[in-house]
Amino acid sequence: xxxxxxxxxxxxxxxxxxxxRRSSAGALGGISRREFxxxxxxxxxxxxxxxxCVRKPPREVVSWDYAPEYQEPGKVLHFASxxxxxxxxxxxxxxxxxxxxxxxxxxxxxxxxxxSSNMAMQAAILGLYDPGRMRRPLGAADWSEADKRVRxxxxxxxxxxxLTRATLGESERALMAEFIGRYPALRHFVFEPVNDAARRRxxxxxxxxxGEWLPRYDxxxxxxxxxxxxxxxxxxxxxxxxQFASRGFTEAPVSTIPQMTRLYVAESAVSLTGTNADxxxxxxxxxxxxxxxxxxxxxxxxDMAADAERxxxxxxxxxxxxxxxxxxxxxxxxxxGSQHPGSAHAAAALLNHDLGAVGETLLWNPKPAALRADxxxxxxxxxxxxxxxxxxxxxDPAADWPGGRFDRFIGKARFxxxxxxxxxxxxxxxxxxxxxxxxxxxxxxxxxRHGLRSLCQPVIRPLLDARQEAVSLLAWMGxxxxxxxxxxxxxxxxxxxxxxxxxxxxxxxxxxxxxxxxTLRVGVHGAPAAAEPPAFEAAAAEALAxxxxxxxxxxxxxxxxxxxxDGRFAPLAWLLEAPDPVTKQMWGNAAQIGRRLADxxxxxxxxxxxxxxxxxxxxxxxxxxxxxxxxxxxLTLGMGRAHPVLADRKVGCNVSALLPEAGRVAVxxxxxxxxxxxxxxxxxxxxxxxxxxxxxxxxxxxxxxxxLFVRERLHDLKETSLFPAMDYSTPPxxxxxxxxxxxxxxxxxxxxxxxxxxxxxxxxxxCANGREMHWIRVxxxxxxxxxNPVFHHxxxxxxxxxxxxxxxxxxxxxTSHNKEGLNDMVYNRCIGTRYCSNNCPYKVRRxxxxxxxxxxxxxxxxxxxxxxxxxxxxxGVMEKCTFCIQRINAARFRAANEKRxxxxxxxxxxxxxxxxxxxxxxxxLSPTExxxxxxxxxxxxxxxxxxxxxxxxxxPRVAYLARLRNPNPAAATSGGKTGERE
Amino acid sequence: xSPSDSRPAEATRRLLPFALLxxxxxxRELDDAINRPIESFPTRRxxxxxxxxxxxxxxxxxCVGVTILEGVGTWGVNNPVGWGFAITNLVFWIGIGHAGxxxxxxxxxxxxxxxxxxxxxAEAMTLFAVACAAQFPLLHTGxxxxxxxxxxxxxxxxxxxxxxxxxxEWDVFAISTYGLVSLLFWYTGLIPDLAVARDRAxxxxxxxxxxxxxxxxxxxxxxxxxxxxxxxxxxGLATPLVLSVHSVISFDFAVAIxxxxxxxxxxxxxxxxxxxxxxxxxxxxxxxxxxxxxLEQIITDNHLNAMxxxxxxxxxxxxxxYVVELFIAWYSGVLYERxxxxxxxxxxxxxxYWLMITGxxxxxxxxxxxxxxxxxxxxxxxxxxxxxxxxMERFVIIVTSLHRDFLPSAWxxxxxxxxxxxxxxxxxxxxxxLFLLFVRLLPAISGAELKGAALQPLVVDGGRxx
Lengths: 982, 466
Hints:
The complex is a heterodimer of chains A (982) and B (466).
Chain A: H1 8-11, H2 33-47, E1 76-82, E2 91-97, E3 100-106, H3 119-128, H4 143-156, E4 160-164, H5 170-182, E5 186-190, H6 197-207, E6 212-215, E7 222-226, H7 237-245, E8 262-267, H8 272-275, E9 279-282, H9 288-299, H10 305-311, H11 315-328, E10 332-336, H12 342-355, E11 362-365, H13 376-384, E12 389-393, H14 397-400, H15 407-412, E13 415-420, H16 425-429, E14 432-435, E15 444-449, E16 452-456, H17 469-476, H18 489-505, H19 512-522, E17 524-526, H20 538-545, E18 554-560, H21 573-577, E19 585-586, E20 591-593, H22 595-601, E21 607-613, E22 616-624, E23 632-637, E24 665-677, E25 681-682, E26 697-699, H23 700-705, H24 709-712, E27 734-739, H25 748-756, H26 763-768, E28 777-783, E29 790-796, H27 805-809, E30 815-817, E31 823-825, H28 835-839, E32 846-847, H29 852-856, E33 878-879, H30 885-897, H31 910-914, E34 920-924, H32 935-940, E35 945-946, E36 958-961, E37 963-965
Parallel strand pairs in A: 4-5, 4-12, 7-8, 7-10, 8-9, 12-13, 13-14, 18-23, 20-22, 26-37, 27-36
Antiparallel strand pairs in A: 1-2, 2-3, 6-11, 15-16, 16-17, 18-24, 19-25, 20-23, 21-22, 21-24, 27-34, 28-29, 30-31, 32-33, 35-36
Chain B: H1 6-15, H2 27-39, H3 44-70, H4 85-109, H5 116-139, H6 144-150, H7 167-200, H8 204-213, H9 221-254, H10 266-292, H11 301-332, H12 335-346, H13 350-362, H14 370-373, H15 376-403, H16 418-441, H17 447-455
Helix pairs in contact in B: 2-17, 3-16, 4-5, 4-9, 4-10, 4-15, 5-7, 5-10, 5-16, 7-8, 7-9, 9-10, 10-11, 10-15, 12-13, 13-15
C-alpha cells in the first residue's frame, strides 16, 4: 500500500475503534522496513559493481502489517455518529473504506430521523476533504504560540465574550460552563442568525419553563402552518417529513374509505412546505398574528368576514379552514414559523389549546436539543462596550451579523480569536484564527431529545493540522491530558466525553465502560421519554398575543438556504449545485418577488433590485416567483460567502445587512430597481407541463370515486413490437416505485446520489450551459392560478426502460440491457456520440463534456472521497443512474457468501436511503420465495401507478404513483384548486 | 457525312437540349482550354482566393485541435441538445456531395449528355464534400481517438462487436461506401484526361506524375472499350448510392423516437434536399470556375439553365415536404409532435425556420424566369440563399427537435461557441481549398467526353428548349 505520509488514515487508526495500531515505521529505530529494504537493495547493487545511484523514494511507504483485525483492504465499515453541524443532532452512519469516510447516511437506530438524511448531511463528506479548509493557525506561528497568546489575553481579560452556535454538544456545554468558571470575566452567548428564539421565549413566558412543543404531524388530521416550513428548515425536518409524508393515507381495501391529512399553509414566500399544501394562503408576514387571531375567533364561532376582508383572503376559504380545524378538534395542529415574533406564537399556542391539540398533536419536550439563541441586540450591547477578548467558536458573525458591520465589534475588542473549519469573514478579521476539525474528525455528544443521548465519534484522524474547539478550550484552561490517557490532542476531549458518560450518564449501568462502547457502536443511548406538559398560563399568552405586528412598506422575510442553510455549508459545492427545491435556482440566490411587485418595479428575472431600510441596504438580482405574496420580498440567507484564497467560492449575495436583530421579518423596506443584471441559473427553463400528462395528481375525493382515475388520463395503447420480447422472467427483476404523494421535493436524493456515485460537480457556468451531472433530479411543475400555483414535485432517475430507446441507437453497444432488467452503461466502451441522450425521452443521461473530476481537483485529499466501488468517469463518456448497481452487487456477493437468497428490501439505493419521506422504494419485482409480492411490486400494482410517457412503450421499470391531494371540498371555489392543467 | 452516320447524330440531337459547344472549337482549342489551368502559373485572383480559403482551413485545424485536446465541452452542445453544429455540418456536406454523383452517374445513365462539361468538377465536389462530412461524426464523439476504430466491426480478442441496430453504424457503411465508389468513379473518368496532360507535359516531373496517375493509358481501342465498360459499371453502382446514402443519413433521425425526428417522410425528403443543395453548390463553384479560367464556351449559360430547372423542381419538392410535415404533425394528433412544429415556427429558433423557408422555397421561385436562370449574377444570391437555407434546414431538424422534447423540465437551449462557428466556416475553407487545388492540378473538365461531343456533327440550335 503506497500512501502519502499525509494520509493519516492509513498509518493511524480509525480512532473510533479505540484500537491502537502500530505501523512498522519506527520499528527499526527510525528506519522503516521499506527504507531498510531499499538500502539493502542499493548496497547489493553497488556490491555487484553496478554504477548504482540510490534515490530516495519520493514518498514514504508504510505497510499496514499490523492492521486491526476488523480492517481488511476494501472492506466497508460503518461507524455510528451524530450530526453536530446542522440545527438538529440526527444520527449518522458513516461508511468508511480503508480508513477513509466516503458516505454518510442517517443512523437507522436513531429514533429521530432514522436512516434518512438531508442535503447537508449528505454533503458533509465533501467538507472533510475540502482543499479550502483552514490548514494551520493564522496570526500565530503555530498552535503553542497561539495558545500562549490566547491564554495571556484570557488571564488579563476583565471582560470578554464567547460566541458559539446553539448546537453545542452536551459535553461541550459542560466544558463551556467550566471554562466560564475558570475565566469569570467571560460571558457566553449563543449566536444563530437563523433561530427560533422568539418562539422559545414566547413558550417560556407562557409555560413558565424552558422547553419546546414537538408537533406530531402523523397524528394530526388538519394542519395549519402559518409560515412554518416544517418540511424544510424550521424544526426537526427529517422527522416531520417522515411523519407527514404518508399523510395518514394507506392504499386501503375497497371496503374502507381512505383518509388523508389536510395541510393549510399561510405564508408570504413560497416554502417547501407551501409547495406541499392542499391550500396555500398568501399573507404578508405582518398578517400572521392577525390571521391566527381571526381563526381563533372563527373557532370560537364568531363571524370572520371582516377579518377575511382585512387580510385580503377569500372569506369562504377562511371559513372552510376554520371549520375544518374545529372539526378536527384535538386532531388539529397549528404551527407558526420561527421567523414570526412571540405574539404570533402565543396566538398559535392559544389556538392549539382551544382546539385541544396540546398533548395530542403537540408533545412537550422539556429539553430541546439546541440552546436558545441570544438576541443579537443583547450581544451587541456587550460588545459595544469594547471587550478585552472576543472568542468566536464555529460562528461567522462577520458574515452573518444582523445588519452587518460586525467588524466594528472586532475592532473594539482588544484581542479576538476565531475558530472555524473554513476560513471566513470572521477569521480574516480576528487577531488569531484557528482551524477547527471537521465533524468526522471530532468527539462529541448530544441530547437530541429528553431521555435520548447520542455520541459523535471521529472516523478518520485529522487530515490537517487542526484542533477541535473543545480541545482548545481545554488547552486554554490549562487542563492537561487526564492521567492514564495517552498524550495528544484527540484523547483530551475523548477522555472528557468518556469520563462524563461513564461517571454521570452511564453511572447506573453495571459496566459503564462497556455501555459506553456499546453506545459508540449503536450511536444512541436511551429513548425519547414522554414529559408532562407544563401548566398553561392562558393570561400570559393572551397578553403576549394581544400585541400588534409592525407593518408597512415592503415586507421582507428571510429564509435559510435549503442547501447551505445560514451559510455554514457555503463551501460545499454539492449544495450549491443541487437546485433549490422551491425555486430550482442553482449556484446563487435572488430576491423572490411576486409578479405584481415585479411589474411595479419594472424588473424581470436577473434584474438587480435595491432593498433599503434606513441606512441598511442590499442589492441583488430579482427572481419572479409565482406564489409570493404581494408586497413581499423573500431573501435567502447563507449566500455570498467569500473565501480569502479561493475567489471563485463566492456565490450569490449576502443579505444579512438587512436582517433585523430579532426575528426574520423586516418591515417598512423600500424596494427599487437598481442597475445591473445577472443571468440566474435555473435547472428548469419552464415550470409548465404544457398540457402533458407528466406529474399526475388527483384529489382524494376523486380517488374515492374512482381509484383508477389515473388510467383515464393516459392513452390506452396496444403494445406492438417488431422484435421478440425479451425474457424478463428470471428473478430478480429490479424495479422502483416513486410515490408522488409522499415526495415533498426536498432533494436529499439528489445529493445522496451525488455522494454515492462520484457524480461530478460542474460549476455555475456549466450549469448555465445545461451540463449538470445529477443522476436523479427533482422536476417541478406549477399549474393552476399563476399567482398562487399548485406545485408538483417529480423525482426523475433513469427509468431503466425495458424497451430502452437509448440502447438501440448506440453504435458500439456501450449501453445495453441485462437480464435483470437494468439498462447498463459500459463506460469503457462508450465513445460519446450522445445519440443515446438525444433518444432518451426522459433526458436522464449525463455526458462528460470535460474532464470534470480533474477540473475540480485541487488537492490529493479530494481523491480520498471517491466511492471505490463506482467508476470515476473520464472525459467523453456518457453516464446515468444505475439503480446503484454497486449496492446490488455488494448485496448479491454478501448473500452468496452467506449461502442464502437476497431478501426483499435488502438493497437500498442511495436516493431511497436518504429519502425522509420514504417516497422511493426499490427492489425486485419478482415475488419472494413465499410468492409474496415484494414492497416494490405491491406499489407497482397500485391503482395510482403509471409510467412516465408510457405511450412511447419504453416500459420503464420506474413506476410513479400519482399524487393525491386533499383540498377542502367546502373551499373548492377558492384559490386552492388542484389537479387541473392548463 | 455518310447516311449511316446520321442516325447517331439524330439520336444525339434528340438527347441534347442545346449545343454542347456552340462555338465549335477544334480539338486542340478544347485541349488548350481544358489544360490551361493546370499548365499556366496561378493567377493573382487564384492566389487571393486560395489564401482566403487556406486561412479558413487553418481555423478549421485549430478548432479540430481544440476539440480533441479540450473536449466537446468547447462546443455549444449540452443536455438536451446533444447534437449541434457538427451533425448539422455532416448532413449538410453529405447532401452537397449528392449533386456530383447525380450529375455524373444518373444523368450519364439517362444519356443527359449536356452533363459532360460539369460532371468532372461536380464529382470532385462530391469527394471533397464527403471528405469534409466524414470528419464530423468522428469529431463530435467524446472520445474520437477510440471512435475512429471502434465504430468499425473488426475482429478482436474481446469479441466485442458493434451494434448493427444503430443508425450511426449504418452511417459508417453508407459514408465509406459512398466515398469509395465516388473516388473510383471520379478517378476512372480522369484517366484519359490525365493521359492527355501527360502527353502535353514538357517538364519531366509533370510527365512522371501525370504518367503515374494515368496508369499507362494508351488510348487504344481496347483501352477505350474497358474504360467505357468500367465507367458504365461505376455509374450503375453510384446511382443507387445517390438514393441510399442520404436515406441512411436520414435514418439517424427517422429511427429515433424524438418528435420532429421520428418521421417516415425523411428518406425521400433528405435525398431531394441533398440534390437541391448539391446543385446549388455546383452552380456556385462552376460559375466561379468558368469566370476564373474563361471557360464560358464550354460551360455555357445553357448548362446553368438546365441545372436551375432541376433546382426549381427540387425546391418545389422541398416546399411540398414542409407542408406535408406540418399537416402530418397536426393530423397525427400527437401532443409532442404538434408542439415541436409549432415551436419551430414560433419558438425561440423561429428565425432559423423562416430563413430555411425563405432560402429553400421562396427565393428559388425566381427560377421560374429564364432570364434569371441564365444570369450568373442573379444566380449568386439565389444559390447562396439555397445553401444557407439547406444548412438551416438541418439545424432546424436537429436543434429545434432536441431543445424542447417530451419533458418540459429538461428543455434547454443551444448557442454555438466560437469553436462551432470555426468548424463550420473552417469546413467551407477546407472544401474550397481542396477544390481550388483540384482545378489547378487536375483537368477539371472531361476532355475526352467533350471531344467526343465536338466530333459529333451537331446542328442543334439549342438553348430555346422551354
